[in-house]
Specification:
The complex is a heterodimer of chains A (494) and B (188).
Chain A: E1 2-4, E2 15-17, H1 21-40, H2 46-66, E3 68-72, E4 76-81, E5 87-92, E6 96-103, H3 105-110, E7 112-119, E8 130-135, H4 136-150, H5 170-179, H6 183-202, H7 208-232, E9 236-240, E10 243-248, E11 253-259, E12 263-270, H8 272-276, E13 279-286, E14 300-306, H9 307-317, E15 327-329, H10 332-364, H11 369-400, E16 402-405, E17 409-414, E18 419-425, E19 429-436, H12 438-443, E20 446-454, E21 457-466, H13 468-484, H14 489-492
Parallel strand pairs in A: 1-2
Antiparallel strand pairs in A: 2-3, 3-4, 4-5, 6-7, 6-11, 7-8, 9-10, 10-11, 12-13, 12-18, 13-14, 15-16, 16-17, 17-18, 19-20, 20-21
Chain B: H1 33-59, H2 61-64, H3 68-96, E1 98-101, E2 105-110, E3 115-121, E4 125-131, H4 134-139, E5 141-148, E6 152-159, H5 160-181
Antiparallel strand pairs in B: 1-2, 2-3, 4-5, 5-6
The chains are: A alpha+beta (494), B alpha+beta (188).
């Protein structure tokens, strides 16, 4: 028997179909593309051909919907499509990383939700293995049922209300949207804005250059901030048993949950602006949370909040990633490597800027007025400022870069401008690589790179310059934990 | 290389189990043929670079006019550096390359300018793959790529027989580990 999820609640072993609104959802993009093409090429029989094409797309999507069934069995979910391109996908509960629900505009119109099932896999980590549209209450029922299966040891009832440890106001969301964007991105965004203003000031009207710069400012700075504000609107995070739940979204709403054991690392991030405001945010490296809609895959456990609140939330939400181990700063030898690097970078910069500086000087020296006084020296001055910035960044980098090891966790602190503390669990480390460049060899230090399973598949986290033997302790601790049986493959295998 | 011999003095679970052909420290070296493979590969790339230089010098004067000489000198500098690197890198690579496979880990030390020490716990290995490009095929060499959930490590320029043995050894180690984890394995 095959029912439609619009009127049949999910029962074990029963084959059900997705909500028919999926036909509209899938045909909409074709409608937009064909409508645009029809307006551009709308002569003679072309619109009629496009209309026929659209009908064909709708019929195709109808056939896809009518012949695709979903079956929730005792041990797995089977998605089967019996069309020309047959497909049978079996998703065992044991391999599922997360089951999430999100709702877009079409979903809201039809009262449906998108159920997204992710497998704990590095390959194809950026797209969910199955996206199924059901009536809102059915999707929520299935999600709750699957979440309970995924976290078998769950002791707290899904219906039991949980009070979030920290509440986030709309102002927090706006602050997060504006100041969690990387400083380099913000700087380049404002550089475009400044150039646009300069163009407007120097030319009579709004020229092409000014418009392009303004557009770049929008793309680089404004759009990401607005997107973040929409994405994290109404943000709520709480922990129920061993499952972390996230709820947020203005236009598209997101309900995400994952088991704490799926977290591979926790990142505490502070952009330059956030540090000036005394705020920081927390992100987690969790594989299998893809929504397939291009948003950031790393779940945010805490929006930009004051450092004390962030620390409190970290301790309440993921105490598994808090052990207060001491961290050491880079040894004196690292200073030499960093200085050589800064000197080489500055030299390259000066050499690269030498010819353009002479060219600009020759071209602008004859200009009368203040422009003729300033412009010839603008490039050499900018180069000198950049070289100074490199030196200062080197000094800050030496001062802030840290590395610490504890019994279960280890951490790297990096970032001269945007600071990031990454806390990792030894049992989640996939591979360790220690690298010594020619200069580092001279000073007897090395850099470590730890490979983890991350939200986008594989990812690596780099350390600063430390003694090779000190960094090698990471790999050895991983090996010791495996050999001693301290590492539990049941909890950590992927 | 200044890393301590056994990473931090901690021996692998099987004590390193030196195999035939392995040095006193348990590490194996590559066959000298790896240098020939590298020389051929570098020669091909150098020929491509040289062709690009000749084409630039012959046809690009028109649209590079103000920078033509500058780009020409920069290209020559790159060619000279590449030539020195291509000549020196293979023997250095051969002299430094070491790898070791024990019951619990794969350990690779290699590099010309940047010396890398890669440690992969056998427990984390997902896939083992043997690959041969046309030059390696000609010389009877192969690469073994070890894939984990977080990244890849490669043991390069192994003789084909050795590559097969390495892959077999890794596969049997992974198989043994998985068998031990099967329900009821502990009771046997």
């Amino acid at each position: 028997m095959t029912g439609t999820a619009a009127d049949v609640p999910a029962r074990q072993g029963e084959k059900i179909r997705c909500h028919p609104s999926i036909i509209v959802e899938r045909s909409l993009s074709a409608l937009v593309v064909l409508a645009v093409l029809a307006t551009q090429l709308g002569q003679g029989a072309v619109p009629a051909v496009f209309a026929l094409l659209f009908v064909a797309v709708v019929l195709f999507n109808y056939r896809q919907w009518s012949r695709t069934t979903v079956q929730f069995n005792a041990t797995d979910v089977v998605v089967e499509r019996d069309t020309l391109f047959k497909m049978k996908k079996t998703l065992p509960y044991a391999k599922m990383a997360s089951v999430n629900v999100n709702r877009g505009i079409v979903n809201r119109v039809f009262g449906t939700s998108r159920l997204q099932i992710n497998i704990n896999s590095g390959s194809g980590a950026t797209v969910p293995e199955a996206v199924l549209t059901f009536r809102e209450d059915v999707a929520e029922e299935i999600r709750a049922g699957l979440a309970e299966r995924l976290c078998g040891r769950e002791t707290v009832s899904e219906d039991e209300p949980v009070e979030p440890v920290v509440t986030f106001s709309p102002a927090d969301v706006i602050v997060h949207g504006l100041f969690s964007v990387s400083t380099y991105q913000t700087a380049s965004g404002f550089a475009f804005l400044a150039y646009s203003a300069f163009q407007l000031y120097t030319s009579a009207g709004v020229g092409g250059g000014a418009l392009v710069s303004l557009l770049m400012f929008f793309v680089v700075q404004l759009a990401p901030s607005v997107s973040l504000i929409f994405h994290y609107y109404n943000y709520r995070v709480y922990r129920r048993g061993d499952t972390i739940h996230l709820e947020h979204g203005l236009i598209r709403t997101y309900t995400t949950s994952f088991d704490v054991s799926r977290i591979n690392a926790v990142r505490v991030k502070r952009t330059l602006a956030a540090r000036l405001l005394g705020r920081s945010c927390i992100e987690a490296e969790v594989v299998g949370l893809a929504s397939g809609s291009g948003e950031s895959l790393r779940p945010v456990l805490c929006l930009l909040k004051d450092d004390a609140t962030q620390q409190r939330l970290l301790e309440e939400l993921v105490p598994e990633f808090v052990d207060g181990h001491a961290r050491e700063r880079q040894p004196e030898e690292a200073k030499g490597v960093l200085l050589v690097r800064a000197a080489i970078a500055s030299l390259v910069l000066v050499l690269a800027a030498a010819y353009p500086s002479v060219y600009v000087y020759r071209e602008t020296a004859a200009i009368p007025g203040i422009a003729g006084t300033v412009l010839p020296f603008a490039l050499p001055l900018a180069t000198a400022a950049a070289a100074l910035a490199i030196c200062y960044a080197t000094y800050v980098s030496y001062r802030v870069t840290e590395f610490g090891t504890g019994a279960d966790l280890f951490s790297f602190v990096n970032g001269a401008v945007d600071r990031e503390t990454v806390v990792m669990n030894y049992d989640k480390v996939q591979m360790v690589r220690i690298t010594q460049g020619p200069v580092a060899r001279l000073f007897g230090v090395a850099r470590g790179r730890v490979y983890l399973l991350s939200a986008v598949g594989g990812a690596s986290v780099s350390s600063g310059y430390f003694a090779g033997s000190r960094l090698a302790a990471i790999g050895e601790t991983v090996m010791e934990r495996i050999a001693s049986g301290e590492y539990d493959w049941r909890k950590n295998s992927v | 290389m200044s890393f301590p011999g056994q990473v931090n003095g901690q021996a692998p679970v099987d004590g390193g189990s030196p195999e035939p052909g392995a040095g006193a420290d348990g590490y194996r070296r590559l066959n000298r043929k790896c240098m020939l493979s590298m020389y051929i590969s570098y020669a091909v790339w150098y020929a491509v670079l040289l062709a690009a230089y000749i084409l630039t010098r012959t046809y690009a004067e028109g649209f590079l006019s103000p920078y033509y000489d500058l780009i020409g000198y920069a290209f020559l500098l790159v060619l000279a550096i590449a030539l020195v690197y291509a000549a020196v890198a293979p023997p250095v690579f051969y002299a430094r390359y070491r790898y070791r496979i024990t019951a619990d880990r794969v350990d690779v030390r290699c590099g010309v300018l940047f010396i890398r020490h890669t440690l992969v716990p056998i427990e984390r290995v997902h896939q083992v793959e043997i690959t041969r490009g046309p030059i390696n095929n000609l010389l009877g060499l192969a690469d073994v790529t070890i894939t984990t959930a977080g990244g890849e490590a490669t043991i390069r320029y192994l003789e084909v027989d050795e590559a097969e043995k390495v892959a077999d050894r890794l596969n049997s180690l992974i198989g043994r580990m998985l068998r031990e984890r099967m329900p009821g394995a502990a009771d046997e």
